[in-house]
Specification:
alpha+beta, about 30% strand, 5-stranded mixed β-sheet, 18 strands, 4-stranded antiparallel β-sheet
């Protein structure tokens, strides 16, 4: 018997931004008034939502806009700054069938003229302190984290202290949390997406002029291992917010496969494009649950560089010294494997795993400190369990254990060697007895 799953397919032939996504969700049937009521739970003021039906390139759809109100005592320049990067909204107030509503909660942290300088830590607090659902809170923070980590990497700071217009801006908060609310209102469908297509050219943002795709958008998609294609449309098509929504929710980035469309929504962008209509098409329908992963796994993902070289003439002591030196210098792992080389010479395959940014440093170290004349490198995607350290009580004493979880279930538990060894020495018992006691404590 086939099981069907509610599925949202994002046809991103013209890119994706937070406002296009929300326009498409409203066109699919998400009630704008309900969305607004949920967003009001954040107690943020200083913005108006405009939702209007319009046509773009002869396609009828929904234009979603966040209009920022000048904060008290400001001349409104903050308004331009917060918009410059994310949406470059054309502030056209079309009064056809629009839905607009003033928020008049006044909060000291909003009206002080610094509303666009919030950092990731502030935003997490706003989300956690609100009465939104646990799912919306968790997903909103996860989407923001992707943007904050990318911006932090670009600007060389930790994600929590990233102070920047893009994420601090009220319209990004509305877009990202609104996107999570909209998905919940649609019944949390599985999300699939088309291959990512980005434009070319330049954008002006808070940090100056940047080539498209922008640094943050590339970092966000790269962290998730998403393939990016450029087309000759001379505009930014994928904004950092759009990229983070894709990276968090989309299971795959492929052409439509096995989707039975039920409703189709169009979210309209701001620009008139040269090569394509500036709309996001969202298809709500059914897919066979057996296709792909029925529930996304909550493992962690990252990318590491693998550097390797074949050696047939290295002194064994030099090899041992290299392993210790490289691990001491921050390699994630270093190992060597016996191999058979040409003319049946025994040799070793030396492998170093390191962070992508450290690849040149370790490549140089191999060339300088071993007999290698060259190295091979490639980047590898990793999937990691959610890991945590726990202390367990055993009849012999306390032991540190490393726990690995997948979707909340403990799938690995390994006692820490140093902690077990110390206890074995203190209590004068065999090491393996301490291990057995620790495993038993974990199971209980």
């Amino acid at each position: 018997r086939r099981e069907w799953m509610n599925t949202l397919y994002l046809d991103i032939f013209s890119g994706i931004s937070g406002d296009m996504f929300l326009g498409a969700m409203i066109d699919l049937g998400v009630d704008a008034a309900t969305l607004e009521t949920e967003l009001a739970k954040l107690n943020l003021d200083g913005y108006l939502l405009h939702v209007s039906r319009k046509t773009k390139a002869n396609i009828d759809g929904v234009k979603f806009d966040v209009h920022l109100l000048p904060a008290d005592g400001e001349t409104g320049e903050g308004d331009a700054a917060t918009h410059s990067h994310e949406h470059s909204h054309s502030h056209e107030h079309s009064h056809s069938h629009e839905h607009s509503h003033e928020h008049s909660h006044s909060h000291s942290h909003d009206g002080d003229g610094h509303s666009h300088e919030r950092n990731f830590a502030d935003i997490k607090k706003i989300i956690h302190d609100s009465p939104l659902s646990d799912w919306v809170k968790e997903k909103s923070v996860a989407v923001f984290r992707r943007v904050a980590e990318a911006e932090g990497k670009v600007h060389g700071m930790s994600p929590d202290e990233v102070h920047f217009h893009e994420v601090g801006a009220v319209d990004s908060i509305v877009d990202i949390i609104g996107a999570c609310i909209a998905l919940e209102l649609l019944g949390k469908p599985r999300v699939l997406a088309a291959p990512v297509v980005e434009g070319t050219g330049w954008v002006n943002c808070a940090h100056g002029r940047f080539p498209v795709p922008t640094a943050a958008t590339l970092e966000i998609l790269g962290a998730r291992g998403v393939t990016v294609n450029q087309c000759d449309e001379p505009h930014e098509l994928v904004t950092p917010t759009g990229a983070a929504i894709l990276a968090e929710f989309a299971e795959s980035f492929e052409l439509m496969k096995g989707v039975t469309p039920e409703r189709i929504g169009y979210g309209l962008g701001t620009r008139d494009m040269h090569t394509r209509p500036n709309v996001l098409r969202a298809v709500l329908g059914q897919t066979d649950a057996a296709l792909g992963q029925s529930a996304p796994l909550d493992w962690e993902r990252d990318i590491v560089t693998v550097i390797e070289t074949n050696l047939d003439d290295i002194n064994a002591e030099h090899l041992g010294h290299f392993v210790e030196t490289a691990l001491g210098a921050g390699a994630l792992d270093v190992f060597h494997t016996p191999i058979q080389m040409k003319k049946n010479r025994p040799g070793v395959l030396l492998t170093v795993l390191c962070a992508v940014d450290d690849a040149d440093r370790f490549s140089e170290m191999i060339l300088r400190e071993t007999s290698a004349m060259g190295v091979r490198r490639h980047n590898a995607e990793r999937r990691k369990l959610q890991r945590e350290q726990q202390t367990v009580n055993t009849p012999l004493g306390q032991v540190q254990v490393k726990i690995g979880r997948l979707n909340g279930e403990i799938v690995q538990a390994s006692p820490e060697y140093e902690s077990c060894r110390k206890l074995a020495v203190d209590k004068n018992v065999p090491l393996k007895d301490v291990y057995v006691a620790a495993q038993k404590a974990v199971e209980e």
